[in-house]
Amino acid sequence: MTSSHRFTFASPTTDTRALHVVKADDLTAFLSGPGAGWAGWLRATGFEAGLGDCRVLPDASGGVAAAVVGLGTAQARRRLRFGLAKAVAALPAGDWALTGDLTGPEKTEAALGWLLAGYRFDRYRPGRKVADRPLLVCPEGVDAARLIAMAEGEALTRDLINTPAQDLGPEELEGALMGLADRFGAKARAICGEALLDQNFPMIHAVGRASPRAPRLLDLRWGTDGPALTLVGKGVCFDTGGLNLKPSSGMNLMKKDMGGAATVLGLAQMIMALKLPLRLRVLIPAVENVVAGNALKPKDILTSRKGLTVEVNDTDAEGRLVLADALALACEEDTDLLISMATLTGAARVAVGPDLAPFYTDDADLAAALEAGAIAGCDPAWRMPLHDAYETVIEPGIADLDNAPGFGFAGSITAALFLRRFVDARRYIHFDIYGHTPTDQPARPKGGVGQGARALLCALPAMLKLEAA
User: Fold this and answer.
1) Most buried residue, 85, 160, 192, 270, by CB count within 10 Å?
2) What pTM value is reported for the model?
3) How far apart are alpha carbons 343 and 324 in whole angstroms?
4) So what family is this one in (predicted)?
């Protein structure tokens, strides 16, 4: 599976119309200056330059001459990303160019939001008519190729998360990875079913063995020069909770439990499309966590690829088990940066909500680069503490580690500490993402969403000291 979405910017022509962007503080100046000819119309329609508030401006014959969209107040812009993307639904088809006093970051956010607002998930509504959408001329000074790569990688992530488990199991996730490998000339392999035991991935096998859709470890490599980057994504294509069965309310969104895998695939696509000068490896443990007679049982003790033993105190804490084997594999060769991404804990949502991507790292320089990348990529992230005092919580006594300690607190932190036990790489970042937008937002419709990928893309030059990116 590869995303069919293709994003583009318009080329300026004589038919390109102006889209005036006006901050709330500058409305009076606009109405007495560039917008003087439409001042009466705009006042009569209640235009106050609120963030995303858009008006089409008529010409003398009643046709469309231009349009104006509000950029709101500074406070409104802090509260809502991609507010200008509201204009995409309000404007008629055609080519539009932004005019107004915009900073470089504001131009980038506007252009990226415009592209992302063009995403639609219509796989299950093939007969639905979609109106032609307005196209934007890429603002001066904005890297169009970079934003298109971001939008297309994000579309792949959203498509994968939005697809129901009936059509996206471990085999189909493998197909998505193989599709990327074919498109960008990467090398890829899959280790499936009983071969996981033969090649020492016991915890991936244990979690996925109850499903008729065989578990597998997916491995993609791309690039021959530059620093080494390894991405590991949780690929639990559906999570019933196993024998510790989830209630129906907790199971409804579990098609998104492969959101970590979807996000690293989207990021990998961005990296390869932009031809970043690095060596990329992507590892995805792809499984379904379902119920059958041979399902993993509470209190089972597993021996991991790394040799650490794990007491299974909750079969619904399966994501960290499959990630552990993949992280151990990743650390069997040198890598300059290791990143894991997973829809791992509900505790992370309680801590930061659905809009922030919490991340963990012991490296202050990596954290600083990522925080800057989050701003540049309009992709908010928040550093969480790897609090060493909680290490004893994940040690059950009967085995080396406990996959679901009964501590009752700090669930996202203890999960990150669990994963860190399987990491030997010096530079490591773990993301505990949500992968879902619960309500429609500008440029982010309700449903699957990538978190952290754009922040990482923007941070990689600093993290890996890339010569050109």
Assistant:
1) 160
2) 0.96
3) 14
4) Belongs to the peptidase M17 family.
